Amino acid sequence: MMLVCTSFFFARAETMWQAEVVIEPKRPGPGDIAVITIKGVTGPVEGIFNGKTLYFNVVPGSQKTFQAILGIDLFTAPGDYGLDVNADGAKFHHTVTVSKKKYPVQRLTLPEGMVVLSPENEARVEREQKVMAAVWLRESARVWSGNFINPRDGRISTIFGIKRVINKVPKSPHTGVDVSAKEGAEVRAPNNGITVLTDEQFYTGNCIVLDHGQGIYTMFFHLSKLLVKPGQEVKKGDVIGLVGSTGRSTGPHLHWGVRIQGARVDPLELIHLRLE
Predict the structure, then answer these.
(1) What CATH number is given for 4-98 in this structure?
(2) Which residues contact residue 150 at a Cβ distance below 8 angstroms, ignoring those fewer than 6 apart?
(3) pTM for this entry
């Protein structure tokens, strides 16, 4: 994994601090997750990336190192984006370069009834999308701890970001991953969190959304059974639901997704991060 390091000098009360900024990977692409590490400051550290708040946490065992998780939304255009950081009473600006990333195309032919919605279902989908969109507006205190784990082992049947063309009509890219699993297989919480949504929706079927704090959310769709309720706290590894084929689904599997400050990112990158 590539790193980029930049040093900045803060001047305050005739004292000079030197801060080192490390972005890993160096040039993240749409749908990627990056870790921003700032060394040489005492904190607290505040950050803004592309108009959204970043949450810096002190690295355990270090008094002058802070880290934040940065999500690059799947629909982010390649280019340079501003990162503004406040630390030790000083401010500095840094540029994060988002690189171009190519995702594969999947072409499907499905019965027309599975593609074209009735006016009633269109209205239902619109209502449900508003319910889901409202979830990402809430950013709470951190409850996640350490590394995120895989909620369900299994073969990845549909990867994140794949572009779908159904009956020769382009559709929205896949914003999660599909995991092949048997009906009734257990789905576990990838980290400590609070259940903020349980619902039965047209596309997602039985679904759960967990809030892990600091703008990090995980979601789980097409479940056969929900084992948590809104407001319920969960611990990493707790069983929260069972695999199913509810909603718009052609067979038992788990679709799970991740949002970081609203950014749609690859869930597999979250569980591959090594966090403190």
Answers:
(1) 2.60.40.1590
(2) 190, 271
(3) 0.91
DSSP string, 177-216: EEEE--TT-EEE-SSSEEEEEEEEETTTEEEEEEEEETTE
Give the domain ranges of the chain: 4-98, 105-271
pLDDT in tens, 163-216: 989 888 888 899 999 999 999 999 999 999 999 999 999 999 999 999 999 999
Digit-coded pLDDT (tens) for 86-112: 988 888 888 999 999 999 998 888 777
Contact 76, 36 (CB under 8 A): no
* 105-271: CATH number: 2.70.70.10
C-alpha to C-alpha distance for 77 and 26, rounded to whole angstroms: 16
Burial class of 27 by CB neighbour count within 10 A (0 to 12, 13 to 18, 19+): middle
